[in-house]
Amino acid sequence: GGYGNTGKPLARLLLQETGVRLVLAGRNVEKARQHATELNQAFDGDRVTGVYADASDTNSLRQAFTGIDFTVMASSTTQYTRQVATMALEARIGYLDIQYSTQKIALLKSMADEIQQAGCCFITDGGFHPGLPAFLVRYVAQKFDQLVSARVGSVIKEDWKSLDVEDSTVYELVELMNDFEMSAFKAGKWKKASLVGMSDYLRMDFGGEFGRQYCAPMMLEEMRALPQMFPTLKETGFYVGSFNWFVDWVIMPVALVAMKLSPHF
Fold first, then answer.
1. Contacts of 53 (CB under 8 A, 6+ apart)
2. What is the pLDDT of residues 76-103, one digit of tens each?
3. What is the Cα–Cα distance from 43 to 12, expressed in whole angstroms?
4. How far is it, in rounded angstroms, from Cα 62 to Cα 262?
5. pLDDT of 134-149, one tens digit each?
6. How far apart are CA 92 and CA 47, in angstroms?
7. Do β-strands 149-154 and 235-240 pair in parallel, antiparallel, or remain unpaired?
8. CATH number listed for the domain at residues 7-123
9. Cα dihedral sign for 238, 244, 249, 251?
10. Is the peptide bond before 130 cis (omega within 30 degrees of 0)?
11. How are beta strands 212-217 and 235-240 bridged, if at all?
12. What secondary structure does DSSP assign to the chain, as a single string?
């Protein structure tokens, strides 16, 4: 995913802030090489190359991982986590992913002993969300003697028409809908939200153009450990904001129910 919607800005940021050499990899080698050329023109040092790699093809991963120190999975390919993780361990390199997937988390946990024995650094859920919410709670906790309530909200207003969305991204969205667990920590215990009614929603003020938005609880694996880390915590959770009224109150409820009834639809 080195030349995708996430890979492009990530590559620019790494070149801007560090002296690393980058290998952009993906199934379309021409796109990878083209973007590598564009980056080499924008940044000094001729530090970027483009290569072919397919997350489902272990041989291509083995070649792509030769001579590198760390791989960042910026593609929507969580269904191939085992292949990528196995090849990363074989190459003795570090690994970071940014995607939401409960199946991915379970798989990586099952490989924990292998990862530790290999001495590799594996970081999962390292994106915006998952990634930042629990970090923000831990950061804020340093400013208080006791942390009683820490709820993190997010709202996204993206011009989806401007993005080049691949089929794999659509697959990832479907998987997210299937995995979506509406839970939050309330009164000292985790509670699943009801799909009917508003009692478990929060109205949060994001200021500016976003204003006040109704937000639904969204369980992230990183949030589970917070009550143990901060025993005084009575309420915490991650809440995701709205798209628009039609998506929020018509499309999303129907989609969530449909995915629960027929997850392989």
1. 25, 26, 27, 60, 61, 63, 64
2. 888 999 999 999 999 999 999 998 888 8
3. 9
4. 36
5. 999 999 999 999 999 9
6. 22
7. parallel
8. 3.40.50.720
9. negative
10. yes
11. antiparallel
12. -TTSTTHHHHHHHHHHH----EEEEES-HHHHHHHHHHHHHHSTT--EEEEE--TT-HHHHHHHTTT-SEEEE-SS-GGGHHHHHHHHHHHT-EEEE----HHHHHHHHHTHHHHHHHT--EE-S-SSTTTHHHHHHHHHHTT-SS--EEEEEE-----GGGS---HHHHHHHHHHHHH---EEEETTEEEEPPSSSSTT-EEEE--TTT-EEEEEE---GGGTTHHHH-TT--EEEEEE--S-HHIIIIIHHHHHHHHHH-TT-
Contact by Cβ (8 Å): 239, 217:
yes
d(CA 230, CA 222): 14
The closest of 110, 112, 135 to 122, measured between CA atoms, is: 112
Joined tokens for residue 52: 């072919």
| Calpha distance 81→96 (Å, rounded) | 11
Q: d(Cα 173, Cα 195) in Å, to the nearest integer?
A: 19
Q: Domains of the chain: which residue ranges? A: 7-123, 132-261
- The pLDDT of residue 235 is above 90: yes
